[in-house]
Amino acid sequence: MDSRFPKKVLTAAEIEFVQNAQNSAQALWSFWACKETAYKVVKKIKPEASFLPRQWEVCLSPPARHFIEAIVLVSENQTIYSRLFLNDDYVHCVGSEVVAALDNMICEVIKLPAGNNGGAEKGHSFLRECASRKIAQHFHLYSSDLKIEREQIKTELQPPHVLKGDSRLAIDLSLSHDGRFGAYAFLP
Asked: Which of 49, 134, 155, 169 has the fewest CB atoms within 10 Å of its CB?
């Protein structure tokens, strides 16, 4: 493993953990997923926030059930609570500023159809369709009435939001897509 990436994004304690882990790649990507998730949460609260992964410390709990609980210490005044879902194919993380919200979160990791690996826009489109169907099912709506959009401010895409017609719904949604997998998470 190239040591430059961990030194750019992990604290000294996290680097030591990765070096001593039975599965160092999974440990590295677990820390990274927690930090990325924390950034998504922070960005929704404070749009001008900067991503400072080396300054944010992740504390992992021992595995419980089918996930690992984690906290990300963003600052003295801000903690993001996370859950990691791991298997041999992916690392998926969801998070919230409120720990109880994790119990209400609806999330799913989806293996993208063959041929999407090289086509990011096809993967994003498929993922938005899957998320729309699940949101529609949960809220007893028609998925054809829903649209998921992301605004762009300057060069930066903003978090996704759900529209029904021209009305923005109060659904906290997150989407992620990497390689053969996509994931969505939302708070009802």
From this structure: 155
For residues 117 and 180, the answer to whether their CB atoms sit within 8 Å is yes
3-class SS of residue 59: strand
Euclidean distance between CA atoms 111 and 47, whole angstroms: 30
Calculate the alpha carbon distances from 92 to 33, 49, 156, 165, 168 in Å.
7, 22, 23, 31, 27
Q: CATH 3.90.470.20 region(s) of the chain?
A: 4-101
Global pTM value: 0.88
111, with CB counted inside 10 A (0-12, 13-18, 19+), is: exposed
Tell which residue, 37, 26, 9, has the closest CA to residue 97.
37
pLDDT tens digits, 150-180? 988 888 888 899 999 999 999 999 999 888 8
* Integer Cα distance of 128 and 22 in angstroms: 35
Dist. CA 145–CA 42, nearest whole Å: 29
Q: Which architecture does CATH list for 4-101?
A: Alpha-Beta Complex (3.90)
The residues that bridge with 96 in the sheet, in sequence order, are: 81
Q: Are 68 and 30 in contact (CB under 8 A)?
A: yes
Query: Are 25 and 36 within 8 A, CB to CB?
Result: no
